[in-house]
Fold this protein.
Amino acid sequence: MKTKRGMTFISWIVIAILCVAFIMFAPVMVNKVYELTKRFELPDNAEQNLLQHQQDQEQKSNAKKAFEAGQYNEATQGYQQLIDRDSNGKEVQTSLFEMAKSFYETDKKDKSMMYYRLYVDTSPGYNFKVKIAYQDLLSIYKEKGMGTETTALLNKFKETYPEREFEFNELSKNIPGDAK
């Protein structure tokens, strides 16, 4: 019995010591945490930037829904508004591609060609959209009999993405020999 009481007494002493230590060090820790959080204060325009980002995401979502519903004019307008709002923003690449695709789907090949060229020229790296852009551009060039542009585009793909030999062969297989 005495050992149980002794353990209880020791437990209370340990708890008391911990409480005293907490009381003594809490203000120091609070000050350290406060100093650390001051480093991460948000800029004055953070709320405005967050609101703009939310609006851009909503605009992008609406444009995507319009595209998926076959409402290509509305989709194009939505993506153009994203570009107009912030021509250097993150959504520009997506907007250029989606606008080109919308024009391609509505047989506005000249406009599609223009936006695909912009997309291809500014694309930061290879992805499935880049491949689609090259495929559609090559298709437009072939349809319009633009052999020189076809050759230049294939060469650009090969130079820009030398590690993508399989994709290059796939892109060039439907191109007449004199255009390669």
